[in-house]
UniProtKB/TrEMBL annotation:
<dbReference type="InterPro" id="IPR037219">
    <property type="entry name" value="Peptidase_M41-like"/>
</dbReference>
<dbReference type="Pfam" id="PF17862">
    <property type="entry name" value="AAA_lid_3"/>
</dbReference>
<protein>
    <submittedName>
        <fullName>AAA ATPase afg3</fullName>
    </submittedName>
</protein>
<dbReference type="Pfam" id="PF00004">
    <property type="entry name" value="AAA"/>
</dbReference>
<dbReference type="InterPro" id="IPR003960">
    <property type="entry name" value="ATPase_AAA_CS"/>
</dbReference>
<dbReference type="InterPro" id="IPR041569">
    <property type="entry name" value="AAA_lid_3"/>
</dbReference>
<feature type="compositionally biased region" description="Basic and acidic residues">
    <location>
        <begin position="871"/>
        <end position="880"/>
    </location>
</feature>
<feature type="region of interest" description="Disordered">
    <location>
        <begin position="57"/>
        <end position="96"/>
    </location>
</feature>
<keyword id="KW-0378">Hydrolase</keyword>
<feature type="compositionally biased region" description="Basic and acidic residues">
    <location>
        <begin position="186"/>
        <end position="231"/>
    </location>
</feature>
<feature type="transmembrane region" description="Helical">
    <location>
        <begin position="367"/>
        <end position="386"/>
    </location>
</feature>
<dbReference type="InterPro" id="IPR000642">
    <property type="entry name" value="Peptidase_M41"/>
</dbReference>
<dbReference type="Pfam" id="PF06480">
    <property type="entry name" value="FtsH_ext"/>
</dbReference>
<keyword id="KW-0479">Metal-binding</keyword>
<dbReference type="Pfam" id="PF01434">
    <property type="entry name" value="Peptidase_M41"/>
</dbReference>
<keyword id="KW-0645">Protease</keyword>
<feature type="compositionally biased region" description="Basic and acidic residues">
    <location>
        <begin position="903"/>
        <end position="914"/>
    </location>
</feature>
């Protein structure tokens, strides 16, 4: 059935038959308030009876109370927000909740917007000519502060005003979209009305015909329009704003825009660059005498001068003083003096009392002062807390934010992320393994021990040089016993804040207890477990944080009851500095020392790591030879050398890793990278060749010297221009004076050779001297190898200011060291003078070939007079020493760290050593 649009709308508004009221305006049926209450979407009608359908948001059935504004602002007109009363010029609608601006306000706001710099898109939105209003609250703030041409906002008002910017933008955008819809509706209605009028004015016959067509057309059109309308309605219901071209703002962006707008507003109305100091005399001369001062505002010792801008602009056109937002101020000594002076000036100028310049006394709110003073600090603190929270949140598992500081950062390896390491992967430390296996049996079947009343050890300290496999052993323990394994480094307990370490320890142990049976491994425990007395002395004060962490560890370990199956293992390189309380039985009951592996140990470790490597070499021979080449290597060095060999082989596109790759890898691990780019001039090269030949010849002819493997003049590593490599008597745990003397003499061989073959000497031997001196000093002060000093141990700790021996003893030590070195020097010089020719032969061959192997030396010098050790000949002489590479300690490394214990033998007695 055909229904006219008016009829449909009337039915919506008040019910009843549409036919009777077709031509009546809706307003005539019910009052706007009643209609709105029934159908909130209908808010008013136009004089011609047209009805606007607007969203509730812009409905003005309940106008807000009038703001305290200028009288021109007629707020009783609110019901006219979107309507045009009959007989008046059509008023531009404003959004609901907004206040229409009076003519004067409109001008002021327009002027204000003119001085604010803002992007054109925003300017298009903030157009008071299009929407002549402001949000009520915003308007109130502005009106309250509007003095003169511009509002002068305090900090609080500015901040409050800022809050309304986003809302204002949102309102305007939504409102404008709504307006477009209303326009569209109005246009459609007008079209329908026009069609109706033309239809009624036609003849009846035409009418029927036309009605049919028209009806169809209309129906079509209506359905279509209706459909569109519905679509739009649905769109709104779903809360999707109608797509609008132009400036779209997200929530955050609105705030940013708010801040952008606020900034110029603030700078316009609050201090900053918009004020300048002026003296009283200048003020008087320039402004007061000319009647340009409108008001003076006294704030403590500062007086703000408010000028009559229009007058200023006419007297001083283009001056800054006339700019909006700018003001002068001057400082006063006391208010009394200022008032007196002002009075006098006005009297002199003949200003009548009634026209005197008004003076007001203001003080900025305490809050804004505080905000200005502490604002930046608060901001920085906020930023810090925020970033700490973010960092904390990213820490995963360690709690979040600053409040997660106290959480332990222990990594958990449990059944899922199972520890794959087994005892079979740990080689070369059989004793340590046996010791620790007991922990595994305890964790696996505790009743076996408890039945007999045995107390299970709480933990073990694994000590030893770096890379010897302490962590690996702990992991293997966990892997074997199939229990969760918590690994944490001692340094992770050390934080900037006191108490954090202790709290992390608490957290770690409480987690461990919850997951018992389990193993806790604290690596590098010396970071927190250092002896507490160490902090004292002249170095000043202890470390509270470290101590409290240590105390917490002690307490936690005491707290375990014997049935709790939590085993604590700790790793350290420095067991000597650990606090005694840690080491006592009941805490870390077992001390397991893991030393560098022996020859056999290295062989086993090589076997473990070679499993992952593709090689066709005979494994027994390979591991034996590699182990012989690497005395002093720790497990980590071996793992590194094996991996390095594989890399070298891959670089050479080899099908498998061969002996030569392993030897090159070992050489590289010991000596560092070859420095092919370092090119020496011929004279320098000659010196290096004779220097190295000196070492080599000494090593060849001294009986107790280590067997020589290789001499090279290819620069390597840091500053080594050439080197001679020896294979120290494998795993020498004791050294005799003979060995020491020969080693020292051999070390001096380079310098002596330079002296014998060149007119001058070079700096190349400095490192040799350092080693020789150190060796001789140790012989005298620690190894009791000086008859004069006797069997005494003088510990000369460099950290102690006072030497632990008398001055005369010091002189004696110096004399003895000198004597021993002199003797070694003489021994070397005698040999090299006698073997000058041999040194020349070796040096010249070196210059030709750059690297000489043991075979070359046999060829040049004849076989060595002294038989080599069995192990050496097994792996090196058997194959003719071909392709031999680096043993771990080149000539210079004569003194193994920790000091091998030499035999008590006096060298002064002139006993034959060779
Ligand atoms: N005995 C060993 N058997 C097999 N591999 C070993 C052995 N010792 C060390 N390694 C290898 O060296 C690597 C490093 O060892 P690990 O981290 O256990 O040494 P660490 O003694 O804990 O060193 P640090 O004292 O510096 O912490 C291991 O991952 C392993 O590949």
């Amino acid at each position: 059935m055909f229904r006219s649009p008016a009829c449909r709308l009337a039915a919506l508004g008040g019910g009843g038959s549409g036919g009777a009221r077709r031509s009546l305006p809706l307003r005539a049926i019910t009052s706007p308030a009643i209609r709105a209450a029934r159908h909130p979407r209908i808010i008013s009608s136009s004089p011609a009876g047209s009805v606007f359908v607007l969203s509730r948001r812009f409905q003005s059935t309940n106008p807000p109370p009038p703001p305290a504004g200028p009288p021109e602002n007629n707020n009783n007109d609110h019901h006219r927000d979107v309507t045009t009363p009959p007989g008046t010029e059509e008023e531009k609608p404003i959004p609901r909740g907004w206040v229409r601006l009076s003519e004067e306000e409109l001008k002021k706001v327009e002027k204000l917007l003119g001085v604010i710099q803002m992007p054109p898109e925003l300017r298009a939105i903030f157009d008071v000519n299009k929407v002549p209003g402001l949000p009520k609250e915003f308007h109130d703030i502005m009106v309250k502060n509007w003095t003169g041409d511009f509002p002068k906002l305090g900090m609080m008002d500015a901040l409050r005003a800022m809050r309304y910017f986003p809302k204002m933008l949102e309102d305007i955008q939504e409102f404008q979209a709504q307006q477009e819809e209303v326009e569209e509706e109005r246009r459609k209605r007008a079209e329908r009305e026009a069609r109706r009028v033309s239809f009624e004015s036609r003849k009846p016959g035409e009418k029927e015909e036309g009605e049919k067509q028209d009806g169809e057309g209309k129906q079509d059109g209506e359905e279509k329009q209706d459909g569109e309308g519905k679509q739009k309605g649905q769109q709104r219901k779903r809360g999707t704003p109608p797509p609008r071209p132009g400036f779209q703002l997200s929530d955050t962006m609105s705030w940013v825009v708010g801040a952008i707008l606020l900034y110029p507003l603030l700078s316009l109305f609050m201090g900053g660059d918009n004020s300048r100091e002026i003296t009283w005399q200048e003020l008087r001369r320039t402004f007061l005498d000319k009647g340009l001062v409108k008001k003076l505002i006294v704030d403590h010792d500062r007086v703000k001068v408010e000028l009559d801008r229009e007058a200023v602009n006419s007297v001083y056109p283009g001056s800054t003083a006339g700019k909006p937002g700018f003001h002068y101020y001057f400082t006063i000594g006391s208010i009394d003096a200022f008032e007196r002076r002002l009075d006098e000036a006005q009297q002199e100028l003949g200003i009548p009392t009634s026209d005197r310049i008004p003076v007001s006394y203001a003080s900025e709110s305490n809050f804004s002062n505080l905000l200005i003073a502490f604002g930046p600090t608060l901001m920085i603190m906020g930023l810090l807390i925020w970033s700490a929270r973010r960092a904390g949140a990213g820490m995963g598992g360690g709690g979040s934010g600053v409040f997660g500081f106290g959480k332990s950062k222990a990594k958990e390896f449990n059944h899922d992320a199972a520890v794959k390491v087994k005892f079979a992967d740990v080689a070369g430390m059989d004793e340590a393994k046996t010791e620790i296996m007991e922990f595994v049996s305890f964790l696996k079947s505790p009743e076996r021990f408890q039945r007999l009343g045995a107390k299970i050890p709480r933990g073990a300290i694994l000590s030893g040089p770096p890379g010897t496999g302490k962590t690996l052993l702990a992991k293997a323990t966990a892997g074997e016993s199939q229990v969760p394994f918590y690994s944490v480094s001692g340094s992770e307990f050390v934080e900037m804040f006191v108490g954090v370490g202790a709290s992390r320890v608490r957290d770690l142990f409480s987690t461990a207890r919850k997951n018992a049976p389990c193993i806790v491994f604290i690596d590098e425990i010396d970071a927190v477990g250092k002896s507490r007395s160490e902090g004292g002395g002249f170095r000043g004060g202890g470390n509270d944080e470290r101590e409290s962490t240590l105390n917490q560890i002690l307490t936690e370990m005491d707290g375990f009851n014997t049935s709790e199956q939590v085993v604590v293992l700790a790793g350290t390189n420095r067991p000597d500095i650990l606090d005694k309380a840690l080491m006592r039985p009941g805490r870390f009951d077992r001390h397991i020392h893991i030393d560098r592996p022996t020859m056999k140990g290295r062989q086993d470790i090589f076997k473990v790591h070679l499993k992952k490597i593709l090689t066709n070499e005979d494994l027994t021979y390979l591991t034996g030879r590699l182990a012989a080449l690497t005395p002093g290597f720790a497990g980590a060095d071996i793992a590194n050398a094996v991996n390095e060999a594989a890399l070298i082989a891959a670089r050479a596109n080899a099908s498998s890793v061969a002996m030569i790759h392993f030897e090159q890898a070992i050489e590289r691990v010991i000596g560092g990278l070859e420095r092919k780019s370092l090119v020496l001039d011929p004279e320098e090269k000659r010196t290096v060749a004779y220097h190295e030949a000196g070492h080599a010849v000494c090593g060849w002819y001294f009986r107790w010297a280590d067997p020589l493997l290789k001499v090279s003049i290819i620069p390597r590593g840091q500053g080594a221009l050439g080197y001679a490599q020896y294979l120290p008597a494998t795993d020498a745990y004791l050294m005799s004076t003979n060995q020491l003397m020969d080693r020292m003499a051999m070390t001096l061989g380079g310098r002596v050779s330079e002296e014998l073959h060149f007119p001058t000497v070079t700096t190349g031997a400095s490192d040799d001297f350092k080693k020789v001196t150190h060796m001789a000093t140790t012989m005298v002060t620690q190894w009791g190898m000086s008859k004069k000093l006797g069997p005494l141990h003088f510990n000369n700790d460099e950290n102690q200011l006072k030497k632990p021996f008398a001055e005369s003893t010091a002189q004696m030590i110096d004399a003895e060291v000198r004597r021993i070195v002199d003797e070694a020097y003489k021994q070397c010089k005698d040999l090299l003078t006698a073997r000058k020719k041999e040194v020349g032969i070796v040096a010249e061959e070196l210059l030709k070939k750059e690297v000489l192997s043991r075979d070359d030396l046999v060829r040049l010098l004849g076989p060595r007079e002294w038989p080599e050790k069995e192990e050496f000949s097994k792996y090196f002489d058997g194959k003719g020493g071909k392709g031999t590479a680096a043993p771990p300690f080149p000539t210079e490394s004569t003194d193994t760290p920790g000091g091998p214990e030499p035999a008590m033998k006096e060298h002064e007695d002139g006993e034959e050593k060779r």
